[in-house]
Each structure stands twice: as structure tokens, then as C-alpha cells.
Amino acid sequence: MNKWYRLDNAAKVFPSVTSRRRSNIFRLSITLKEEVDPNILQTALEETINRFPSFKVKLKRGFFWFYFEENGEIPKVSEETPYVCEKLNFRAQQRYLFRLTYYHQRISLEIFHALTDGSGAMEFLKAIVYKYLLLKGKPVKPEKIILTDIETRNEEAQDSFVQNYSSKVKANRKEVKALKLKGTRYQQDWITVVKGSVDVDKLKEVAKKHQMTITEFIATCLNWAASRSLHLFEDKHRPFQLFIPVNMRRFFPSKTLRNFSLYIRTSMFLKDDMTFAEIGDLVKQAFAKQLQKETLHQLMMANVKIEKNIVLRLVPLFLKEIVLKIGYKVWGDSPNSICYSNLGVCDLPQSMHEYIDEVVFTNGASFSTPINISSISFGKKMVFSVASLLLERNIQRDFFRLLAQFGLDVLIETNELEV
Amino acid sequence: MKRCQQCQVNVNTERKSCPLCNEILEDLDQTILPFPVYPKPSQMPKKQNRLIQSLSFLSIMAIIITVVVNVLTFKKHSYYWSALVAVSVFYFWILLKSTFKNKGNIPLKLIVQMLALSATTFAIDYFSDFKGWALNYVIPFLSMAALIAIIFMLIFNFKKINDYLMYLLASNLLGIIPFILWIFRIVEVLWPSLAAAGLSFTVLVGFLVFARKELKDEFKRRFHV
């Protein structure tokens, strides 16, 4: 009898709101220092997937909810296509909800958000790359960082949102509509990626000079960059809201490999003559107020309450999908102008460091948030990756120019979709 | 490596202008990239499928022409033969879109095929002289054929029982419908309907005997709240 899993609280909405223009896919890449051998990568994937039962699934329709069912097929690696974070065609992936690709020296995992969040997917990719290097005959060791066969798997498949449900915490969520980016889209919803890497120690230094953490500093930079391109936005009476996902494993002990992240937002009425310091103060205030266990717990309650609502639960799936689509428009889409997701430091075993060149995190853009910025650091390098549906590159330009003005050496690489 | 003096950033690219501001880039060293950082997209727009377009156009044209001719030549004792054309075209599209389109999920295809054929034969019967041959004979035999086909697939693929259960139950229920219609005297000939209902019932009992656990499990996941 094959296993099945309920979708976790955050995942429940994704299958219903996914379309060509909103793929809900993000990409994690690890670049090696030599060409990737597809055959060995295939073996590494086959040997790793069994260790991660919550990834070895296909999506199925129930009468009331979607659910995951164990997938008996063998997942196949493929060559990277030019289309970053394109909507997954499940059938082409043997019904798996991820795509493992290779391109010269790079191994990329593109994964559907219903399956897991950034940190869960990173564990999976790390294990695949570890196995790949091992099969290549490199002397690498797990060093208690790579998940190997001995750990408890049951905990990894748990829905930590529901587990932290407590009737004592009051549900609280307020959403305000935000400024929306308007621009010229690429044909066929292409996503352009502008990748900029900087030295992470220098960045930390600069952020410290402003008495900020890296995330606060980058959020300030992005708000500033947006304030110089206000002509790209419509509904100018609304506040500019930057959506920042937060890893809840920081606040609640959990080993889950499924979704367990929530978000905070900076919200401000931008003017084109605001100074960096002014914006910085507002960002710091927003972080201090929202980035707290109680506030996030209240937000979590609000989300879990919806799932626990008996009326909604008993509505058949096809009707529920309509409700979810409308709900997502109101609560999920409209409060966000752009999105900045920082995955922090990518923790890899020392023995693997010498084989790895770069780690990149790219969050696919969608029609509701046409620009998504994501970052991850490995070794000395922090890589920012700006995915965008728009031809206009004002925000990317001003953001990277600002980093350069702070004395950082920025190296830009793009997927060459010509402006 | 190249540099944009305007943006004060280094750029790793083959192109001559800055990807951020389109200013001309300055060459820092002469190293050539061994391959582009990302695979290059082809500039070709996706081709539209001319065959499907022509077929849709021809289908609509065929229906319009036959309806027009049917109406213009209609006399007291003639019948609506243009409806037969419309129904056949409709069936052709189901065949194209469901049965031949992609591989996979054969039990679902079988059920769609059975329903489509039932509807088509019933329509042909109804729009010609309505002797009831479709309801009396064709539809019960079609449902039996679908059920037997799915059972055979299951026998050779017993590991995939979870994928088959729901379709098997669905075709079971469909197999009973002709018999229910006989109770209401819509179907006149008993033996084909009774045979179909008997087969469905037998299969259902077979399930409760051989796959009760699987059935229970499948229900649990399909109907979890």
C-alpha cells in the first residue's frame, strides 16, 4: 500500500492558483567546478529520492482536498531550458512536482511551492549534490549537515503549521492593498534573470555601519530603488509593500521538510525624494514590530483557522478551488508590490566546499508580483537573483548601482534576454 | 569580464552593452566565456498548430453546411439528418482530444470513450427512426466492454490498484444505469441491461472480497476532509 499525505497548510492554496503566468516555482542551483555528468546525476537522484519520501509524491485530486500520493515512477533529470521557473508539466516529470536539471557545471532544482519551501528544498538539493560528489569518487562526508539515512523521517513530513495550533493564540492578520508594478511584459511570459554577486563580509560591514541586518539593509535598498522608479507603478495612493518570507523554523522548533515559512512586510508611502536613512528607519521599525514570535504565531493561527473551518472543509474541491482563487486574489496577491526572499547562509559540509563554486536561489516572478528578488550566500559570496517579467529594468539597475555606491564590487550575470 | 562605467558594476557577458542600462561596456580582460551563463532562448515564437486549426474550421463548416442543406430541403417526412453529422463531428473531437492526445491514464480514457460512444449512438438512434437499439443493446454492451477492459488491465497491473479503483467503481455504477432505466420502462429489452448490471454487481462483490482494504484506504484518501 503506498503512502499518502495531506497538503500542509501553506501548500493547500498553490495547486488551485497555479497557471502559466504564476508558476509558483522556485529554483535552487549549485554550481560545481567541473562539468556535470548527467548519468551520474541521474543515479544520484534515484538514490537520494528514497531518503525523502515527502518529495517522492504525485499530486492527486480528492473529493474535498488535493493530496500527495507516493510516486512509484523513477524521476528523470533533464537539461536546463532557457525558461527559468517555467510552469511544471507534471506529466513530463513522471508526475513529480520538481525538475532536476543540469547545465554545464550547474545542477538546478526547480520545485513546486506546494511541496516545500526554500529551506526544505535546499536540504533535498544538498543531499543530491552530496550523493553526486560521492559517486564521482570525491572524499566528502555528511558532517551532520547532509540528511542521510539515520535521521527520523516521520518528523520531516509533518505539517508544523497545524502542529503549532493553539487555541490560546488569537488569530490576527491585516492586509492592505499595495502599489502594483506596471510595465511591458516579455512575450510568452518569459522571465528575465539578473544575477548580481557581492562579497558577503563587505556587505555585512556596510549593513552594520547602518545598524542593520543584511535583510533589513537589502529591504531598504529595494525600497529606495523603487522610490526612484515610481512612474512604473499604478494606484499611487497605495503604500509600497515589500513581501519578505520568514523561515518559521527560526522561531518554532521543527524538522519538517515541507512548507514552514510565513512572511513580514515593509509598508510605506514612497516619495521620490526620500533619503536612504528615512527609508531605513521605517524598515527597521517594520522588522522590529513584525519579526516576533507572537506576531507570527497570530498570523499562523489566522491561516490555520481557515483550514479548520468546517464549512470550507465540507465544500467539494471544485467549488473550493473557486473560493481559494478569489481568496488568494484578496489576501495573497494584492498586498504585495514586490518580494524579497533571503535564504541566508547555505550550510554545506567543509569537505564539499572545494568542489562547489556558487549557490543561487531564484524565485520565479508572477503576474501579480512581476519582480522577485532572492538571495543566498555560500562561502564568501552572496548572490542576488532578480527574476522579472518586465522589460523595464529600472529597479534592478538602481538596486545594483546603489550596492556599488556603497563600495561593493558587484558582478552581474544575466540570462541575456535583450532589453 | 567587462565593466559598465555608468553603473560601476562588472558584467560577465558576451554582449556589448550593459544589461542594466544599455551603456557600452568596457573590456577589462580578453577572456571569452566558455559558454553562456544561462542557455539562450530561441527567438522563434511557438508555432501554432495548423492541422488543428484547419480541422476545427472544417468541422464547423461541415456542421453549418449540412444544417443549411437539411433545413432548405426539409419536407414533411424527412428527418434531421444534419444532427447525425454534428454528433459524429463531436465524437471525432472527443476521440482526438481525449483518446489520442497523450499517453497515460488509460482507464479514464476508456470511460470517456464509453460515455462518448454511448451519447453518439443514442443521438444517432434518436435522430433517425428511434427504434431504441442504442439504449437496449449498444449502451449495456459498451459498459460491459469498458468494465471488462479495466478489469483486465488491473489483473496485469495489480500493483497500480490505487490508480484503478475509482475508475472501476465509476464504470461499475455506469453499468447499473441501463438496468435502472429498464425499471422505469425507458429500456424495453431486459437481457442486455440485466447482464450489464449482473456483471457490475459481481465485480463489486469481488472487490469487497479481494480488495476490501484497498477500497477502504482509497476512500479514506479521496474523501479526507
Please describe what this structure looks like.
The complex is a heterodimer of chains A (419) and B (225). Chain A is an alpha+beta fold. Chain A has two domains: 148 residues, Chloramphenicol acetyltransferase-like domain (Chloramphenicol Acetyltransferase, 2-Layer Sandwich); 235 residues, Nonribosomal peptide synthetase, condensation domain (Chloramphenicol Acetyltransferase). In chain A, 31% of the residues lie in helices and 24% in strands. In chain A, strand 6 and strand 7 form a beta hairpin. Chain A is globular, with a radius of gyration of 21 Å. Chain B is mostly helical and 225 residues long. Chain B has three domains: 37 residues, no CATH class; 44 residues; 123 residues, no CATH class. Chain B has seven helices and three strands. Chain B has a three-stranded antiparallel sheet, with no helix packed on it. In chain B, helix 2 runs antiparallel to helix 3, helix 4 packs parallel to helix 6 and helix 5 packs antiparallel against helix 6. The longest helix of chain B has 24 residues. The relative contact order of chain B is 0.07. The mean pLDDT of chain B is 87. Chains A and B meet through strand 9, helix 12 and strand 17 of A and strand 2 and helix 7 of B. Strand 17 of chain A pairs parallel with strand 2 of chain B, so a sheet runs across the interface.
